[in-house]
User: Fold these one by one.
Assistant:
Number 1:
Amino acid sequence: MSEVPLLAVDDLAVEFRTRSGTVRALERVGFALARGETLGIVGESGSGKSVTAFAIMGILDAAARVTAGSIVFGGLDLLTASERTLQEMRGRELAMIFQNPRAALNPIRPIGRQIEDILIRHANVLPAQARIRAIEKLAAVNIADPERRARAYPFELSGGMCQRVMIAMALACSPALLVADEPTTGLDVTTQAVIMDLVADLARREGMASLLITHDLGLAMDYCDSIAVMHAGHIVEVAPAAELFRAPRHPYTQKLIAATPRPAARLGDLAAIPGGLPDLRRDDLPPCRYSARCERRGEMCDETLPMIEIAAGHRVACQYPQ
Amino acid sequence: MTALLSVDRIEKRYAVGGRGLLARLRQEKPAFLHAVDTVSFTIGRGETVGLVGESGCGKSTLVRLVTRLIDPTAGAISFDGTDTAAVPAKRFGRSPLRSRIQMVFQDAEGSLNPRFTAFDAIAAPARRLARLSAAALKARVEEVAALTGLPRELLGRFPHQLSGGQKARVGIARAIVDVSVQVVILRLLDDLKRRLGLSYLFVSHDLNVVRLLCDRVLVMYLGKIVESGPADAVFAQPAHPYTKALLSAIPSFDPGGKRNAVRLSGEPRSPIDPDPNVCRFYGRCPKGVERCATAMPALTMVTPDRQVACHFPETEPKIARSAADKALNGETLSS
C-alpha cells in the first residue's frame, strides 16, 4: 500500500443528537483501503460498523453529524462533496449491498427492470440495449435462466437469489469500491458461502476493492486481506487477517477470538467477554472505551489512547498491547 | 438407553391451492407441501441432539410437531412412554406432559410478552400448569432465576429493560420452570443439562455451535433426514454430499482457505408434491446421476450409529467407525 490508497478514512468522528443526549458513535476512526483490497470491519452490534459504512456512502441518518475527520475516495473528500457529485459517485464508483436484500429491492418492479434503471442512469447504456445488458448482469451473478428471472418480482425469489440481484445491481457499473454491510446475515450457511465466493470472485476479476462489514469474525478471516476490529465507536486494532488471528495484541480482539466458536474449539475453551459496551451518551467517556471491561487496565488508560504501530499494517489502540 | 423421545415416521403435509370455489368447480386436486416427510429419530435422556439444515427444510415444523404445537398428518411421537401424537395440539397445552417439553426461541425479545415483567414471564407456565400458592410460586421463580444466573433485582423488569443475554436467560428460565449465541448461554445450557438431566433438541444455523454442544446431529434436507450420527463423527467425515457442502460452508478461520470448498449450485427442489422416486437433493448434488432421479435413497445404516440417505455415501465404513469410536470414548463436551 505504498501508492495513494483508493479510500482513506482519517480521524472520523460522528455524533447522533438524540432526545436523551448526544451519542458519540464514532471517534478517531481511521483506515486506508488500496485498489482491489478487501478490508473487514468486525465488532459486536452497536460498535459503529454500519455507521462507518453509512458515513462513507454519505447516507447517514439526519440526526447524525460528522464532527471531525475526512473520507477521501479517489482524491475527492466525500464529506465536502456536493450531493450531486455524491449521487454521481454512488452507483458508478461506490456501491453498497445491504443486509436485507428483499427490503432493498423495489417490490413492485421486475428485477430485470431495476437493473436496467441503473444501467441507463449510471452507465450511459441506451434504453434499447438495457434489457440485454441487464440479462448479462444477472448471468454474471450465476442466476440460472436469466431471461425468465429478469421478469420476476422480488417476492418470487429466494433470499439468496435476491442478494444475487442486489450484487448484480451494485456491480452493474463496475464500481471501484463495494461496501457490503452484513451481506449474508440471515442467509443459510450454504448460500452465504456461495454469495461470499461470488463477491470475492467478481472483486478479483474486476480489481474492485471491498469493505465487508460483519459481526462474523470467521467470515472476515476467510474473505478479507485485512481486518479492523471496532469497539464502542473506536477501531481498536487493524491487522492483516492471518496476523490478527495468530497474534492479536488488543485485549478486546483477544477476547473476541476466544469467544467465537471455531472449528477446533471446545466449549470449555470459549471465554465470555465481561461487561458490555459503555453508554456512548456519557460526557465523561474515558479515552479508552474498553477500559471498564479490561483486565489489563492500568494508570495510563485514563490519560490518553495511543495508536501504536506494531508492524507494517498492524496498529493497535492500547496503552499496554501484548 | 431407553429413549426419552421417540419419533416414528412422522409426516406433516399442508394443502396448498385447489381449495377455493373455482378450484373445486374445476375439480382440481389440492397439492400438498411436504414440510416433514417420514422422519424418525430418538433422543435419549440427558442427550443433546442437534438439528441442522437450510431454511425451508422443515426444521421448525419438526420442532413444532415434537413440542406438540401442531398436529402431525401421520406418524407417532412417544414421549417418556406416552404417545403424545394422539393428543390434539389444542388440548396438549393442558396436558401434564406440556410442562416436560419446552422451547427456547432464537429471538429472545420477540418471544417475551412486552407487558410481562421477567417474573410474570417465568411464572406464567408455572401458574398455568401447576397449582402453586403465591408464596410457593415466588419461591419457585426465584429459584429458577438463580439457576439461570438472572439476578433477583431484575425480576421486576420488563423485556425492554433487560439486555439480550438477560432476555435469553428469562426465556430459558421460563422453559425450565417446571422442569446471534453467546458463550454464556451455551455454557448455561450445558450446565443445566448436567445439573437437571435435561435433553435438548438443539436447532441452529451455526454448525460450530452444534458441534460444541451436541452429542448427536440430524441433518435435514427438504423435509427428510439425510444424515444422522455422533456429532464428532459427522463433522469429521460427512457421508452425505449435502452435509459435506454444509460443513464446507462453515468459516474456516483460514485466510484463503476456501479454495477447495464444496459449493452448491441452483435452488432446492419444490417441496410441493415432490416426486417420491427422485432424491430430494438431485439437481443440486455434485454427484447426481440417473439412478438418483429414478430411485429415492432410503435412510440406511452405514455404521451402527450412523445413517445416510444417499446412493453414494462418502464415508469409508472403516474410517467412519474409528471416528465414531473416538466420539464415544472421548466426551463431546468438556467444560
Number 2:
Amino acid sequence: MLSAIFILTFLGLTLGLLLGVASSYFAVESDPLELEIEAMLPGSQCGQCGYPGCTPAATALVKGEADITLCPPGGRSLAEELAERLGVSVDLSNMEDKEPVIARIREELCIGCTKCFKRCPTDAIVGGPKQIHAVISDACTGCEKCFEVCPTECIDMRPIPKTLKDWYWPKPAFAA
Amino acid sequence: MGLSDIKLFKIRGGVHPFENKQATAGSKIISVPLADRLYIPLQQHIGAPAEPIIKRGDKVLKGQLLANSQGAISAPVHAPTSGRVIAIKKYPAPHPSGLPVRTIIIEPDGEQRWIDSSFSYHDPFSLDPDEISARVAAAGIVGMGGATFPSAVKLNLRKRFKLNQLVINAAECEPYLTCDDQLMREHADEIVEGIRIMMHALQVKKATVAIEANKPEAIKTMAAACADIPEITVVKVPVQYPMGSEKHLVQTLTGKETPARALTADIGIVVHNVATAHAVQQCIRYGLPLIDRVVTVSGGAVKKPGNFLTPIGTPVSLLFDMADGFISEPARIIGGGPMMGQPLPGTQVPIVKGSGGLLALTKDEIAEKQAMPCIRCGGCVTVCPCGLLPLEMAIRARNNQLDAAVDFGLMDCIACGSCSYVCPSHIPLVQYFNFAKGALTEKQRAKHKQEETRRLAESRNIRMEAQAKAKREAMVKRKAEMAAKKAQQAKEKNHKEASA
C-alpha cells in the first residue's frame, strides 16, 4: 500500500516536471503581431475572407499571403488600419469598395426553420421555430452565412439603403 | 433697458457678401393659404426621428400631436391644420440628397379646426423652469435659425452649467434673408415676452439681443419693446458674415472665446434664435405647438420676393407661386441662405421647421466658375473666422488624407463658406470640408459597427460555450442518475433473491 503511494507520487512528480520543461522548451512561438492583427479583425469568424476564421486570416495577413482588403465586414477603414500596421502601401483610392450588403428575409417565404439564426455569428436574426424570422439590420455584417443555408431561398443580400444620417457630399470634382 | 452701446469685441476674418436684403426688407409677413397636401417629415430636427401615433385615414385637428419624440434629443411634430391623414410614407426630404424620409401626408379639410386643448394660461413666471422646458419640448420647438437642435434641451443646460446670460441671435447675417428682421418689426412685444420666459427657464438675470446694424427698423422696435425691462438689452453688432455663428456672436459681445469643440454654455452663455423666442412665447402663453414659421422667398429669379408665414409641410412650389412665380428659369433653388444653405432637389419638397429662406437664384447670382490651381494668396486664411488654414485642409481632404486634415483643425471648421467666397481661384474649399467631415463620420460609424460586431460575436461564443457546458453537465448528471437507478435495481434484485 505504502510503496504504491510512493511510486505513484514519484511518477506524478517526474512526469509533471517533464511536461513543464517540455512546455517551455518546445513552446510554439505565436507571433505577437498575429495576435494584434487578430484583435483588429471583427472576430465574427464569418469566413467571408476565404479563411476558416479570424485567427487563420490574421496569420495569413502577417505572412503576406492575404490581401489587406480581404475583410468585407471591416471594409475600407479596416484595410487602411491594416495597411498602416503592416506597413504595406496599397492604393485604396482605386479599390472599388465592395458595396456593403445586409441580409433581408422575405417574410412571405420564411417557414421559420431556425437554420439561419442558428448560424448567424452576430445574433442578428431573431425568430423561433415556426415563427417568421427577421434581420436586425444594425447587427448584420453581410457575411451570407444565413443566405447559404436558407432552404426556401427567402434571404436576399441587399445593399444598405442610404439615409439622411449617413449621406454626405461627394468629393468635389477634381480641381487643380 | 433698450438699445445699449456696450463695448464690442472684434472677431477675426469674415466677409461682407452683397446683402441683397433690400428685395424683401420691410415686406409684410403674408400668410400662405393651405396647400392641397401638406408633407410633414418625421425628421425635421437634429436627433432621433419622431414616431407616428396616428395612422392612415385618421382625421386630425389643427395642433394635434402626430408623432412623438423618441429619446432625449428629438422633437414631436403636430398637425399644421385639420384634415385627413392620407399616407405615412417615404417622401423626398428638403435636403440636397433628395433621399426619402418618412413623412406624414395630410389632406387639409379647409376648416382649420383646432384641437380642444385643455390649455389654461398660467403666469409663466410662476411656473417651474422644468415645466417650461417640458412644455417647449412637447410643442416640438427646435432652433429656428436653421440648426434645428431641440430647444428644450438647450433650456435645460442650467442643470449642467453655471449660466449667467441668454443671448438672442438676431444677427441674420446670411444675405437675402429678412424673416427674422420682419418678425422683430411685427412681433417685438411677443419676442420680448418670449425672451423673458426663456430667461426664467434658464434662471439667468441678463439677456442680450444682438442685431446686425443693417436692420435699423428692427433695432428700433426691439429697443422700444424692451425699454422698460432693465434685464434685456439690444445691441447693434457690426455687419460681418458670419456674425450669426453663435460662438462668434458671443465673442463679439463678451470678448470670451468658446473653447474648441465646446458649447457656449461652457462660458456661461446660452444662445437662442429670435424666431425660437417667438415660438416659445406662443407655446407658453397660448399653448400653441410649432406648426408654422416665417420664410423669406427671394432670389433674382423670383418675381415678387417676400416674407411668408408658412404652415410646416407646405410644398416649396406653393411658396414660389405665392411669390408670383419666376422671372426666369432659376439656375439653383436653395433652402436657407446663399452662404450656408443647401440646394434643394426640386420644388416638391416641403418647408420644415428649420427653413428660414427659400431662394431661386439666377445663373449670374450663383456665378459658377471653373476652379483653378491654388496660388497660395492666403485669402482664405485671412477670412477664416475660426483661424484655420483652409488651403492646407483642402489639399489634404482632396488627397483623402482625412486625419491630416483633422490635424489642421477640420473639426473646428463651422462650414461658413467664407473661404470659398473669397478664393480667387474658385476652389470649392468648404465643399471639400463638408465631404471630409462626412467621410470621417462614416469611418467612425464603420469602426463603431466593427466593435459592435466583435462584441456580439464574443457574447455569442460565450453563450454557445455555456450552452454546450450545460448540455455536457446535464448528460453527466443523467448518466449518474441512470447508474444510480441501475445500482438500486440491482440491489433490490439481490435483496429479493436473497430473501427468496
